[in-house]
Amino acid sequence: MRGWRASGAAGPDRGRPATPAATGRYACIHGHFYQPPRENPWLGVVEAEDSAAPHHDWNERIDAECYAANASARVLDGRGRITAIVSNYERISFNVGPTLLSWMERADRATYEAILEADRASAIRLGGHGNAIAQAYGHAILPLADPRDRATQVRWGIADFRRRFGRAPEGMWLPETAVDTPTLEELARCGIGFTILAPHQAAAVAPIDADEWTATPPGSIDTTIPYRCDLPSGRSIALFFYDGPLAQAVAFGGLLADGREYARRLAALVPSAAAAGPRLAHVATDGETYGHHHRFGDMALAAALRAVEQDHGLRVVNYGWFLARNPPRMRARIREGTSWSCAHGVQRWRADCGCAAGRGQGWNQAWRAPLRSALESLKAGLDAVFEREGGWAPADPWRARDEYVEVVLDRSQSAVDRFLDRHRAGPLDPAGVVRALRALEMQRAGLLMFTSCGWFFDDVGGIETVQVLKYACRAAHLAKTLSGEDLETPLLAALERARSNVPAIGDAAAVYRRQVLPLAVDLRRVAAHHAIAGVLDPAEAEPKPAYSYEVQRLDWAEEEWSDSRLAVGRVMVTSVDTRESAESGVALLYFGGHDFRCDVFEPGEPEAFAQVRDELLDKYTRHSLSDVVTAMNRRFGEAGSFTLRDAFLEERRRILAGVVARTLADLEAQYVAFHREHGRLLAYLAGSGAPLPEAFRIAAEFALSREAEPIVRALAERAADPVTCLLDDSIDDLRRVAAQASELGVRLRSERLRAALAEALPRLVDSLGSRIDAARVEAIGALLDLAVQSALPLDLWRVQNAAFRMLSEPGWSGRIEAATPARRVDVERRVLALADRLNLAPERVSRV
Fold first, then answer.
1. How far apart are CA 542 and CA 544, in angstroms?
2. In what helix (H) or strand (E) does residue 587 lie, and over which residues does it extend?
């Protein structure tokens, strides 16, 4: 669990000031941070992925383990205490995939802003050269893409970078470092100055001013200098070839067990003297290596970055800075169609080449070729529809697609209008706008269905392949709405040739039918979802901005009787992505529990709708659900109704959780009543040293956990209250409950209590930023006591960050409020004791 004492992950740090870098010796560590797009293509949100438990989804899990961790990486001393919390992004070269940044901007704004700030800080430190570089947008294997798609992927990546980082990128990361000459030509055409490749991707080198080419077999190229790659167009681009053995040791060889050894190995790449000119020791790996693939890898990286300067005298820089001061003195030719993760070039993404993750013994990847063939055939059909059926006659449809990223990054009506005004050849009515946006969204899905992860792993049934099939489905359905052409049937026929290694899975067509088609959304289903989700929660009456649809209630009536409800209304559903809209009537009958029936129908004229509404409400108010069902069958038919299964995953689970919670609440109430009735006997048994019957122990845990939870939440709510005495009663109550649990020998295990503690502790520590007093410090200590006593699993990462930040602020002790100087000293002592308890030992503690 991140936040507690981690033994030796980053090695000891002596806290010495950095020594001046020796002339000509530089170091750079590059992290390629990336996750594939995981959003439901119809909804625009990442839905729950159970394999990522205890987190909601894999983005959230890897964010906690890696992306956020590297924004606040711990530097430890020899005793495992935190002496500094640093942003690794300020010291490494990095790229973050656009699809990951898009998710992070919504889901973890603090880490997103920390990454942007790190780039700004590095640009200040390095004379305008920020650490961030761009990445081709959708992580497609560019040598396998057709020229138009390759150009769009590069241009979207650049546009996304400009929008987020506020500057043009100097370099670009190629997905899987997959490279060929047309790909380099596209980068150079778009103004990219350099890219990073694996050493085995170099074919030959020559002096900058002579055609004396020397072949570079594996392991022979000098990786400490940049190379110029001259292109057939007359353009050129700089290439950095990272050190392969060191990258392997970092990613797979256990080097991250010791940050100082990592620094030593990195420094050893450049000679101690700079007689041969400035040299750059550099390495590139997946960014997820630092914390996700290797636990506490973020701390090892922080320790290595310090040690490389303090112990070895190299200056930590980035590629842009080094290239600006050290233009290439050698040229290089690439090995065409190669990558960093396939020994067979780029076959891993189109053939059964033998490269695999090794999860299934005896498995093959013969499914890769038919999967790519199926999607390439679909893409050819999509492109034909795009050119033929766009419905808005742009002068240059492919240029319009290149610039559509502006809308992807800003879905506001004004942004859409500006884009369409610039590209349309003539007037566009509302139907034309819908057709134009459908065509462009079809193309966006068509680009994302080539995300490399769909082929990288071992079986066609993996979540990564399912994801690319989701985009294929979305694209095929949009194509049909534009042209009426059925591209899905031939797609399914082609997918049948992509056989799974698992007999129960079958083939990619079966995966598509079983796991993809049920996700498809149209406006009728959105209307049904809105009614089902809203009938139990009034807040759901408004559209959820996270989803790609807006729902406006035009007419709505609800009645409730016993555990049932009836809702009848008219709604207008509008797609944020395509601006298509439709008005629907909905009639929802909730029987209680998890039992729903929802009919979506053409509302007709207001008078006709009113007749339907009034009839259903009249029968319902007579308290006969069977009469309501009979009327709904007569009006809408007995087949085709929506049920809870048709609600979107998040709301479906929320509704089920509510049903379960109500059942559990009844059970908990019985436990609490049992404990109150027999509590004296339980206390007597505990006091006599007699073992507690299991039922007594469980009842006590439920009752005391239920009593502690509102106390903890009250502490969080009152943390910012200027009247500190409000904390005192809650602290006393909390300690009373904890003492009772201790006397009875039970632990408080409620998940709700754990969640309350996880919320309260950071809020209380944050409140010290404006006011430090004994009550707040005591409340934090009481909450920590409760967590330890109850063995509740808490991640103190946020708490440590907030406390460390406070202790590092100049004059923090001046915010202590105490009646006397002696009391002030006592409160300061308590704060420092709390820091020690949180495993914090800052190198410098600022005080007044």
1. 6
2. strand 581-592
